[in-house]
TrEMBL record:
It comes from Candidatus Afipia apatlaquensis. The lineage of its organism: Bacteria, Pseudomonadati, Pseudomonadota, Alphaproteobacteria, Hyphomicrobiales. Gene3D superfamilies: 3.40.190.290, Winged helix-like DNA-binding domain superfamily/Winged helix DNA-binding domain. The keyword Transcription regulation applies. GO terms for molecular function: DNA binding; DNA-binding transcription factor activity. Keywords: DNA-binding, Transcription, Transcription regulation. Pfam families: HTH_1, LysR_substrate. SUPFAM superfamilies: Periplasmic binding protein-like II, Winged helix' DNA-binding domain. The keyword Acyltransferase does not apply. This is LysR family transcriptional regulator. Residues 1-59 form the HTH lysR-type domain.
Amino acid sequence: MADLADYEAFIGTIDKGSLTAAARASGRSLQSVSRSLALLEREMGVQLIRRTTRRSYPTTAGIAFHAKLKAALADIDLARAEAEQQSEAVAGSLRVGASVLFAPSYVVPVAAAFMQRWPNVSVTLVLKDEFSELMDDELDVAVRIGDLSASRLRTRMLGQLRRVVFAAPGYLATHGRPQSPEDLQRHNCVIRIPGPEGDMWPLTVKGQVERIFVRGSFQSNDAAACNEAVAAGIGIGLASFWQIRRLLDQGQIELILTDFEPPPVAIQAVWLPTPALPSRVRLFIDTLIARFSAERW
């Protein structure tokens, strides 16, 4: 398939009057320019340039194609120049909020990629698990997990986080594998307190969300501690998939009740309403969207 270099070879041949002059101007070999023109003509199924030993003349089709293509390439050059100017103009400090467990693995890589692309921007990452006011922490943008339906903030959806029920293979071998949400009431469950669910787990039964009461001998206010407790065989846990993916990949846990998983949780970028969003904030949000779209949530 023809690429930008092939199109530039065609434009150069017309503008310079010969393949040799086009090759000299572009720093390519005569054979390379000739191959580019042959590829274009083969793909288009029409002769674009009539060649002689001294000169190269565009055909009628070549003249029409040259006019449109040269304008398109000029637009590409303009877009490149504008992007370079924007890169130079993006500068200043950026304060980003996120949760303690989520940020190191997911927000920090985004910040690193962003700072590499726009080196004149400095980033301060503020980590909290509670939803504090953006103005209180002077945040430009935050990554929030959970329901923001009553918020006055501007938002952009970044993804839907799958939630799963899981247990260690050893626990399941000893206590059996639950087959339905009701079976959880006969098992030891690891409970996060206060947590969004606590001891009432929202599982999906016949398309409807039902709150299943669970009990257990281990509780913690820290999600990572709860997940490690499950991996240690204490009981059954409930968590977002991204939190326990490493444990699953290592074989320390197994997913259970996959036909009854809770509804996913939204992850969003949020920022204060403002008439004009600074370019560094807008570009960071764009980077979040691009990076998170490839994640296996």
